[in-house]
Write a structure and sequence with these properties.
With 180 residues, the chain is an alpha+beta fold. It is 62% helix and 13% strand. It is built from eight helices and four strands.
Length: 180
């Protein structure tokens, strides 16, 4: 079985479970956010992929991170992926799950990076703006990334909309260097 087929298989299995439990939206959001944390934090990634680390310790790490904030099914599914040796591919699996779920609801996946969590009103306005810009309804996956400083970076398919303070500062720096 090819890597892409395995990733798709895991994603479809997780999607089916979360859908059957009636918590697909919440679980996919939490799984996506968890996967992005694993990608950004090397020590977390190492802890979850270290074969020498006992399974109980990995479960404790998952429970500590998701604990009472997350849905119990999210922690169970993450634990399943780690036990199945898929911790290194959790990001790809979470992205495929989100893509499949968006596709089922006839939406396009939009990953949005922000410095701080968005309110429901901000999420709704951003989804509307991205839908107008792309011509397709979007399914937002919000990733909190302090390096954004402020503003928003949105990726919808191959398109990137960069309205971040960090990019504006870089543009200003380039302008100033160029005019000296």
């Amino acid at each position: 079985m090819a890597k892409d087929d395995e990733i798709r298989g895991y994603a479809q299995a997780l999607l089916s479970i979360a859908e059957a439990e009636g918590v697909l939206d919440r679980v996919q959001d939490e799984l996506y956010a968890f996967a992005k944390s694993v990608e950004r934090h090397a020590d977390l990634r190492e802890a979850l992929t270290d074969d020498a680390l006992p399974a109980e310790r990995k479960k404790a790490v998952i429970d500590e991170l998701l604990g009472e904030r997350g849905h119990p099914l999210t922690a169970t599914l993450v634990g399943f992926l780690v036990d199945a040796g898929q911790a290194r591919r959790i990001g790809a699996i979470a992205e495929e799950l989100a893509r499949e779920a968006a596709q089922r609801s006839e939406r396009t996946l939009a990953e949005v990076s922000v410095a701080a969590p968005l309110t429901d009103t901000q999420r709704s306005k951003l989804a509307d703006a991205l839908a107008k810009a792309t011509g397709h309804p979007v399914e937002l996956k919000v990733v909190v990334d302090p390096s954004v400083i402020g503003g928003v970076i949105a990726r919808v398919g191959d398109e990137v909309f960069d309205g971040s303070v960090a990019s504006r500062l870089a543009e200003a720096r380039q302008y100033l260097i160029g005019s000296v």
